[in-house]
Amino acid sequence: MLENKEISALFHLIDDPDEEVYNTVSDKLISFGKDIIPNLEDLWENTGNEEIQERIESLIHKLHFKDLTADFENWKNGDCNLLDGALLVARYHYPEMQTSLVLQEIEKLRRNIWLELNRYLTPLEQITVFTSIFYNYYKQQGIEIAYTHPEDFLINKTLETKKGNVISNGIVYLILCDLLDIPVKAINIPRQFILAHFDPQYEIMNPISHNSEKILFYIDPLNGQVYSHKDVENYFKRISVPPTTSYFKPLSNKRIIQFLLEELSKCFDNDRNRYKMNELLLLVNLLEE
Question: What pLDDT, in 10s, does the model give residues 183-218?
Fold first, then answer.
């Protein structure tokens, strides 16, 4: 814990009824950074005043968010690894999360799938093996999106409970495909989060062709079901939208994490938690090009 007279003096003012004084105290405490969190937690434990406890909780949250914002800035300016981005999103809800548990689970899954793959399998056979291990052997379940359950969007809970919605399951699926060098990407089909298996050789030979022509088949990450081009054509007819080439372009990792943040923010669309919604949308804007 940090120890100095200034911190002690600020703690004595934390219950000041004057909002202007409290805001000044709050800003000063936040300027110390996350190293002051143990002091705040100790103060919380040693006060019985609920109003002061709420102020302390708010300060701790602001400190975690400040730290998280800086990490998102670094992620944006780095290689934008999808696993790292998903872990950052999970840290918004679980700031003390142990990432090692997630990494161990991902590695266990990767190894189990890798052991069953070989270079003689066709792309569809590869995905059949992948699906069998992920959804049948590992028993990962797909659940409908529910904005009353923010944990369903987070990679740590998705792996811990073996339940995820189409977005969180899809992100785990994409992370594993990347580790296994399987060319599966998320694409921008309206009102869906769907994955596509790209043909890398076709892309090299025909770089300016329609994006959909570079795709072999489609995958629903909710349950691993494979869809054909005809299935997707029928979907576009059903929603009365022309299938333009932009819908078949792979989404960047940055855009996937933005989408995850946008969807997670909808879980906090109420008066009590609106500040969380606003914070998550701030992170979305931070990741803009």
Answer: 999 999 999 999 999 997 766 565 555 567 889 999
| Token duo for residue 114 | 């890798």
**244-256 pLDDT per residue, tens:** 889 999 999 999 9
- Please give the structure tokens belonging to residue 249: 């372009």
Quote the CA–CA distance of 267 and 273 in Å, as a whole number.
9
Helix (H) or strand (E) holding 164: strand 163-164
Report pLDDT digits (tens) over 84-123: 999 999 999 999 998 999 999 999 999 999 999 998 999 9
Pairing of strands 194-198, 163-164: unpaired
Q: Which residue has the tokens 């142990």?
A: 98
* Single pTM value for the model: 0.91
Contact present, 217 and 124 (Cβ < 8 Å): yes
78/6 Cα distance (integer angstroms): 37
Among residues 35, 220, 16, 38, the alpha carbon closest in space to that of 134 is found at 220
Question: Which residues partner with 194 through β-bridges?
Answer: 187
| Residues, the chain | 289
Q: Which two tokens stand for residue 80?
A: 């934008």
- The residue that leads in pLDDT, 197 or 38, is 197
Specify which residues 197 forms β-bridges with: 184, 217
What is the token pair recorded at 144? 């409908």
Q: Are 43 and 56 in contact (CB under 8 A)?
A: yes
Contact predicate 221/256, CB 8 Å: no
